[in-house]
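does this look right to u?? glutamic acid version
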Amino acid sequence: MHDSGKNKIEIGQSSGSNERHKSEKIAELLFSDAKPGTHWEEKYPSRELPKGAYVTRFAPSPTGFLHVGGVMQALTDEAEAKRSGGVFILRIEDTDRARFVEGAEEAIYDGLDWAGVHVDEGGREKKGNYGPYKQSERLETYLTYAKELIKNGFAYPCFCTSEELQKVREEQERTKQPRMYSGTCRDLSEKSIEEYINAGKRFTVRLKVPEGETVEWNDLTKKNPITWDTKNIDDQVLLKSDGFPTYHLANVVDDHLMGVNRVYRGEEWISSTPKHLLMYKALGWKAPEFGHLVLLRELETQQKLSKRKGEAGLEWYKKEGYAPEALRNFLTRIMWAHPEGRDVYPHEDFIRGFDVHKMGEGAPQVNPKLLEHINQEYLARLDPEKRLEEVVNWAKAFEPEFAEICMKHRDDAERYLGIEPERMKKLSEAKALFGFYFSELYVTAAREELLSETAGDEAKMKEVLTAYVNEFYGQEDGHDAWQAKVRKLASRTGLKDKNIFMLLRKVLTGSKNSPPLYEVMQALGGEEVLKRINAIRQKPGTF
Ligand code: GLU
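got this back:
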């Protein structure tokens, strides 16, 4: 471990009386000449992978729900790694304790599982030899590199108090200056540093951004290089006074030690990249390639997805009734065009065909019509067993009683869902569309609805139903013979064909809209058809 046992500190643990002791310990670790006990580069040797293989990672912070844009990024990472014979890592970036949300880590694992994103390293099972894959479990590693940056003159301790920093910030706001560190501690003499440390002053460690340089990189998603003048790069805090790294230090150290060579992340991180590139250079490391993905937008408002309305979180899509594979298909579709112009395709096509260089620079849109269309087509194409599984999985979470009924009549349910399956745009519609087949859920149409087919004449309605039952047809006759018989019944009773068909439909399904009646009757079976008709026609008196 780092230095020796006696130097081991409880990084980030509770403050109070041992606060002074703690900053002394951190100082000792950072400024002593002792070599680190663990040589991280040896612990994590470089990977033996085929030439051109990409090591990618998804590195969410557990600060809330899993954002659907995060899933999109993870799909890109996974595709790059899979196609090239590389590795896809899931790393939890949880060093910002103030933003930590209980249960958020589980939500990340569950969400990725649900969406069908498969990681090679990290994740719930914590597979892989480059772990731990959670930053709060790697704290000593970051101290090692903070120390190295200080030693080489690329970082320095900053003793400014938060009150002092706040004052400067307010002044900058007032004078409309960019919010940047004033540089008070940038060039402190070794003597002053020693004095402050001996006095037990708390400190952070800041990146010493060189003056008068430019940082430039070719972003994978952009046509032109991105350039940054170092005068616009802040002396970023890398290590906090409690020994916890900030995102910037931890992210760079981990990407390097884990062998990541292609980084995808949201474009909101673009301004962090110059700082990261300076750190890679200062540590003598080869920087990965960066691809900053444009954030998802709502189609109508062109705004970023709203957390308030819910569309930003994966849970919303789940609840609305989008099948996981369909959502995954949609997310890949809005950043990639299938070579045959298809909207619905096997995920392998995306893995094989995705090319970041062909990605447009515009924002991918969450077009609800396209999402619905993909979901509908996906569900319609499934084999009966899988379609039922999708419906049951959804219903288990949101309509458990319906799930139970489907499972109880598994074979029948598969058949029912297979009759005009394209009627279902979302899984949440399954009960309304297919529920009537199940005797537990069937409710016949309201009295007025039924009577509207015989112009309010109840006796006539019952006469028609009785004739139908007595000469029962429908099951064994075949479609055309059945239809001809119903037509005859119509002329005999003085009703229009369409009224008889509609009456039967309303009696059997409880609704004006259903799949073709003959198919419905076949699915229900003769006994159930008769039972439903008899229940109406035998109702005593007016019902
Ligand atoms: N932890 C960062 C986040 O929450 C990761 C950014 C990156 O991928 O570098 O999104």
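Residues 1-8 have pLDDT under 50 and may be disordered. idk if thats expected tbh
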